[in-house]
Amino acid sequence: MSYNVIKSEDLTFPKIREKINKAGNLFYQYRACRRDAATIYDIENIRHGVVYARTPLQMNDPFDSMVGFSSEKIYDECIDLALDQAVDSLDENLKLVIKSLLKYRLIGKTVEFIDALNKLKKYIFVQSVIEHVSVTNMPLFIMKNVERLYKKSPADVKRYFDKSTFLIFAMLIKDYKNVDIDEKTLVDALNMEESLMELEKVTVEVRDKTYIPFLQDFLSKLTVVCFSASGWDNQLMCSHYANSYSGICVEYDFQEMKKFIGFMYPVEYCEQRPTLMLKDLGITKFETDKSGSLKTEEVDMGAIFSYMLAKNKCWAYEEEWRIINTGEKPYTPIFIETPFIKSITLGLNLDEMCKCLIWDICQEKGIECYQLSLNPGDYVLTRQKLTSEDFVFDEERELEYITLLSEHTGVLSQKCSENSKTVVEGIENGKLEVDALVNFLTSTLDFLSDAYFMKCSFNRYCRNKNIQTAEIQENAQIGTAIEQIDAFIMQAKVGAESINENSVNMVLANKMSMQNYQTVKGLTSNILELVDKHDSMKWYLDVDEGKAL
Residue 248 forms beta bridges with which residues? Predict the structure, then answer.
C-alpha cells in the first residue's frame, strides 16, 4: 500500500492542532474571483468568516475530492458476501476458483483471464519438462516448488493470479496438457454453471443494492473543504485556480483556531489509487434488520479519512490539506467558521470591481491586502502591501460600471420573461419545457449577480460623492430602478421556492429527468442563497439618517 492509514489516536483535536502547528499554521485558498455569483459567495464568506464545505459526491474540481473505487476489489468483496449468503459449506479452494471465474466474468475480462490460465499451463509444463518431471509426479512438483515457480512466472500470469490462486489453478490444469482451456472447459469439469449463474445474480444484487447505495449514502453525509500549505506565491496554483493569476489568494492563520472545526489533515500523494471497501464501511455480512436496513458494524473512520486524503502524486505541488466533517443529512453543505484570515493577495489582472470589493472587506475586517506582481528579471512572484492611497475613487469608472450592469440586467430581465413565458405555456399544454426552465433559472441567477455588483458600485459612488439620502429619493429615475430590482429579487425568491416545492412532483410525473432535477435544484439553491445576500446588504438610501454603508 502506498498511502498511510490514519490511526484512531490521530483523530483528536490536540493531535490535529499539533499537525497544523508543525506545518506552520498558514494555509491558503486560491479563488478565481470573476464578476459572477461564485465570487459573490467568496466575498460574503470572507465577510462572515466562513468557508463552504460540500459533499465529495458533488465536487468536480480536481483540487477538491473525488473518491474512486476499483471494480475488481468491489467484486472481490461482493462475491465473498454472495458466497457466504448462497453457499453453506464449500471447499475453500473451490471457492477461490469460483471467485476468479465469476469476478472476471462480471468485469468483462473472461477472455484475458482464460488466456492467462493457458499461459500458466504452458509455463508449468515447460518447467516440468526442464526438470524431467513425470505426469504422475506433477502435483508433488508443483506443491514443493510453488514459491520458485510463482516468482519466475510471466507477468501476464501474475496479473491474474496471486500465490494462492496460482497454486490452485496450477493443480487444476495439470490434467489438460494437450487441451486448450476455455471457460466452458472449467465450468463443465467442475459442474458449476448453474451455481455460477446464481452467484452472479446474487453478486450483482449485492453490488447494486448494498455496496453502491451504502457507499453513496455514506459519502453524501461527509463534507470536504480544501486548502493549500504552499504559500501565496505558488505559480501553478495561481494559474489553475486563481483565474490565471487574475483571481485572489486568501491566507488563513490556523494558529488562531481555538476549537474543533473538523478533521484537518494533509493530503497524501501516492501512485496507488485507494479503494473504499465494504469492511471499511462496517459491512462484513449481508444481513438486514426488521426495517430492511443493512446491519453494519463500526465504520473505520481512520481508513475512510485516509481514502479521502489520498491523491495522485502529480498533484503534489498543491501541498493540499482538507477539513473533513461528518453529518447526518445527505447532500447538505455546511459553512465552517474560519474567521482567522490574515491576508488577501490580489491577482495581476483582477477585475477592478472585485478589487474594490475585496479592499472594502479588508478594511472592514482588518485584513492585510496585497497586490501580486512579477519580478522583471526572473520567474519570482512578489507582492506589495496596499494602502488607501492605492484605491482612489474614480467617478467616471464607477458610473461606467453602473451603466454597464444596468444595461446587462435589462437584457437578462428580457431573457427571464421570454423563458418564463415558454415554461408557463408548456405547463398549460401539459408539457414541461425543461430547457426553458433551466435557461430561466440561469438568467435569474446572472441577474441577481449583476444586481449585487450594481448595488455595491452604487453605494460606493454615493459614499464617495457624499450624496445625501434626500437627493437620491428625489431622483425618480433612480427610485424606479431600485424598485424594479427589488421587485425582481422578490419574484426570484418566490419563483425559486415554488419550483423547489414542485420539482419532485415533476420527476414523479416523468416530466423531468433526475439529471435535470439535480440541475434545477442546484440553480434554485444558488438563487435563494443569493437573495439572502441581497437582503443582508441595504441600498445607500436605506441607511438610517442618510449615513453611507
Answer: 31, 346
Q: List all residues 6 or more positions away from 83 whose beta carbon is below 8 Å from its beta carbon.
A: 90, 95, 98, 99, 199
Nine cell digits for residue 421: 413565458
Q: Which three cell numbers stand for residue 475?
A: 431622483
Question: Could you give phi then psi for residue 176, rounded to 5 degrees?
Answer: -120, 40
Confirm whether 80 is domain-assigned.
yes
Is 234 part of a structural domain of the chain?
Answer: yes
State the distance between the two ends of the chain, measured CA to CA, in whole angstroms: 57
pLDDT at 546 over 50: no
Query: 6, 325 in Cβ contact below 8 A?
Result: no
> Distance between CA 32 and CA 39 in Å, rounded?
7
Query: In sequence order, which residues have a C-beta less than 8 Å from that of residue 121 and are 6 or more positions away?
Result: 173, 176, 177, 181
Report the side by side order of strands in the sheet with 263-266.
263-266, 320-326, 222-228, 26-31, 248-253, 341-346, 368-374, 381-385
Would you state the cell numbers that stand for residue 105, as one nine-digit string? 466474468
Residue 344 β-bridge partners: 250, 369
As for how many domains the chain has, the answer is 3
Say how far apart CA 389 and CA 125 lie, in whole Å: 86
Q: What is the DSSP letter of 211?
A: I
The CA R_g of the chain, rounded to the nearest whole Å, is 31
91 vs 255, higher pLDDT: 255
Which of 400, 542, 381 is CA-nearest to residue 461?
Answer: 400
Region label for 221, one of left (φ > 0), alpha (ψ between -120 and 50) or beta (otherwise)? alpha
The answer to the question of residue 60 being in a domain is: no
Distance (Å, whole) CA 156 – CA 126: 16
Q: Is 5 left (phi over 0), alpha (psi -120 to 50) or beta?
A: beta
Write out the three cell numbers for 350: 483582477
Whose grid coordinates read 447532500? Answer: 331
The DSSP element (H or E) to which 494 belongs, if any, is helix 476-508
- Highest mean pLDDT: which of 21-35, 43-57, 526-540? 21-35
Q: Is the pLDDT of residue 543 over 80?
A: no
Instruction: Say what the pLDDT of residue 65 is.
Output: 44
Identify the three-state secondary structure at position 18.
helix
- Check: pTM over 0.85? Answer yes or no: no
Give the domain extent around 119. 71-207
Q: Does 1 reside within a domain? A: no
Q: Rounded CA gap, 399 and 461, in Å?
A: 8
Taken in order 105, 107, 108, 111, is the CA torsion positive or negative?
A: negative
